[in-house]
Amino acid sequence: MLKKLLFFLMVALIAFSCSQEKKEYTIAFYNVENLFDTINDPDTRDDDFTPEGKLEYTAERYQKKLTNLSSVLSSINKNSFPAIIGLCEIENRSVLDALIGQDKLKDAEYGIAHTDSPDARGIDCALLYKKNEFKYLNHNTIGIHFPNEPNFKTRDILYVQGILGAADTLNIFVNHWPSRIGGMEKSEKNRVFVAEQLKLAVNKLQEKNPKAKIIIMGDFNDEPNNKSAEEALAATNNTNTSNPKALYNLMYDLKLEGKGTYNYKGNWNMLDNLIVSNSLISNTDGIHTNHKSGRIFTEEWICYKNPDGLSLPSRSYAGPRYFGGYSDHFPVYFQLSR
User: Fold this and answer.
1) Cα(303)–Cα(313) distance, rounded to whole angstroms?
2) % of the chain exceeding 90 in pLDDT
3) Which pLDDT band holds residue 13 (cuts at 50, 70, 90)?
4) Sheet of 332-337: strands edge to edge?
5) pLDDT of 267-320, one tens digit each?
6) Per residue in 139-165, pLDDT tens?
7) What is the rounded distance in angstroms from the CA atom of residue 159 to the CA atom of residue 197?
8) How many whole angstroms separate alpha carbon 111 and alpha carbon 113?
9) How confident is the model at residue 10 (pLDDT cuts 50, 70, 90)?
10) Are 203 and 196 in contact (CB under 8 A)?
C-alpha cells in the first residue's frame, strides 16, 4: 500500500513539474518587400509585378520569393516556429495562403488575419498565427483618413485580438506607416497623424482595462526616437515606471547602439519597431517579456556585402534590377515567456 502511495505521489510531482515548465513564444515582424502575385489587379498599381511589367515578375520569381521568405520565417527560432508573425507589403490573401503553404512553413499550420487596404499599390498588413498556440478572437482595421489630404491613401492599421496559450488575451496592432518620399521632414506630419490614431485606439483599450496586454509592431518609416513614435505614440525606453499602461519600445536601445533594420546610403535606420505595454513587462504571473528582449534577425545568408564590406539585407529588387534576395528589411522579433 505504501509503495502504491509513493508511486502516485511521484507521478503527481512529475506532472506538477511538467506543468511548471517555462513556455516561450516568439513574436516576429517582417517587412517582406513587395510580396506580390503575378496577376494584374486593375484596381491597383501592381502592373510592374507582372510578367509583362518592367520588373519582369514571372512565376519563377514569385516562387523564389515565397521560398526565400519561408526560409527566413522558419529560421527565426531554430526550436519552433514563431507563434505570431506580423507582415507588411503583402498584396492580398492569396499570397499569404501561398506563403504558409510552403514546405518550410506548412507544418506550423498558420492561420491568417488580413484585410485589404486602400493603398494605391494594393499592399496590406497581415498577421500569421499558430492556431494551436493563439486562439483567434477577432480582427478589424483602423482606417487612416488625412483631414487635409482626402485623396492620400495609406495602409490601414490591422488590429487582432486573441488568446495566447491558455488564458492571456493579446491585443496586437500591425502597422505600415507612410513613407519618407518627398523628404523625412516634409512627410513627418503624416506619420505623426497615423501614430495619433493608433494612440487613440490604445487609449480606448486601456480605459476599459488598464492592464490590457498590447503589442504594437510594424514598419513605421520612422525610428524609435522620432516624433511619431516617441511623442505622438508615447513609446519610449523608460524603464523606471510601474504604470501598466506605459508603452515600451523594445528596439529603442538597439537604435542607440547604432543598429538598424534598413540601410539607406550606408546608414542604418531602425524603421521596424516592436512595442509592448508595460503590463507585459511588469506582470510576471502570466505571459511577459523584458526590456532587453528586442532582436534583429541578421543571419549572413540573408545578407550581401557591399563594396565597403558591410552586410546589408539581400533584397529582391533595387529599382528595376532583380537580385533574387529576401527583403530590403531585416525581420525583428522578441520572446514572450510564461
Assistant:
1) 5
2) 86
3) very low
4) 110-114, 124-130, 84-90, 24-35, 332-337, 295-296
5) 999 999 999 999 999 887 789 999 999 999 999 999 999 998 999 999 999 999
6) 999 999 999 898 999 999 999 999 998
7) 12
8) 7
9) very low
10) no
Type of residue at 86: G
pTM: predicted TM-score of the whole model, two decimal places: 0.93
Q: Which residue has the cell 510578367?
A: 51
Question: What domains lie within the chain, and their CATH numbers?
Answer: 24-333 (3.60.10.10)
> Vertex 21, ends 20 and 25: CA angle to 5°?
120
Residue with cell 490601414: 156
Amino acid at 165: G
